[in-house]
Amino acid sequence: xxxxxxxxxxxxxxxxxxxxxxxxxxxxxxxxxxxxxxxxxxxxxxxxxxxxxxxxxxxxxxxxxxxxxxxxxxxxxxxxxxxxxxxxxxxxxxxxxxxxxxxxxxxxxxxxxxxxxxxxxxxxxxxxxxxxxxxxxxxxxxxxxxxxxxxxxxxxxxxxxxxxxxxxxxxxxxxxxxxxxxxxxxxxxxxxxxxxxxxxxxxxxxxxxxxxxxxxxxxxxxxxxxxxxxxxxxxxxxxxxxxxxxxxxxxxxxxxxxxxxxxxxxxxxxxxxxxxxxxxxxxxxxxxxxxxxxxxxxxxxxxxxxxxxxxxxxxxxxxxxxxxxxxxxxx
Length: 331
Prior knowledge:
Elements: H1 16-36, H2 60-65, E1 70-73, E2 85-89, E3 92-95, H3 97-116, E4 121-124, H4 131-141, E5 144-146, H5 158-162, H6 165-173, H7 179-184, H8 201-217, E6 228-231, H9 238-246, E7 251-255, E8 266-269, H10 275-321, H11 323-330
Parallel strand pairs: 4-5, 4-6, 6-7, 7-8
Antiparallel strand pairs: 1-3, 2-3
Helix pairs in contact: 3-10, 4-10, 6-8, 10-11
């Protein structure tokens, strides 16, 4: 049986628990030195909070610390970003954070207005490092997100993607005034005969089936397009941005110095390679959407409360004027 030889220069084995205890003691000894330098140290790990910034309290110092000013190489720049570029340093373009601040506040105000009016906001982040940010922003704003590949035709050609369920929903529920027209109008098809009046019997049967299902469920088959799309990486989402432009859906996107700002409706000049920078932008927009929804709820609750108050006052006045009617109603 071989035995392990011990020597004077051999490091003794340390268990995982002992290693953690040694690291804790080392950090405990460093705490007074770090506090003397002006920082407050705690033993709890604290990562950067996503929703700690708003368009009102965001400062240039926080943006600078997040690296939002760092662009791409000067040889890769897009000439349309010239108004947003502050200068060049070591071959890298520097973004003017004052323009970033103004663009972010303008985009946040627009997102807040869309959410206040009951619009649908979709956060799109297809990069691996942006997926969780898109999910967190959408959950905080109580909106929707897309983290996978954008399916071409989602906005411009949804009929083949959704199948027969789209037919009745798009023709009837989207425009209730065109109900009679949609029920008697058939789309052109290769198999339809002109002698039968241009209508497709199969289409009419399918329309009747979908009509029965829709009437049974209420408006369960109602289809909605987003009112706003927030793209965290618009350079990799050109198909989605093209469909949004053709569908008249406004877009907000993070534009680096190598990206064309004309791709989106509200460009935000910022470093899209910094996870912290993208987190700040997504957090500000998510907070704006949440504030808009809170204001909308408050307005609706105030309207309901005012309506109930007026109803109670009318009933009280009626009972005072006609006490006999109120007594008969109680009986």
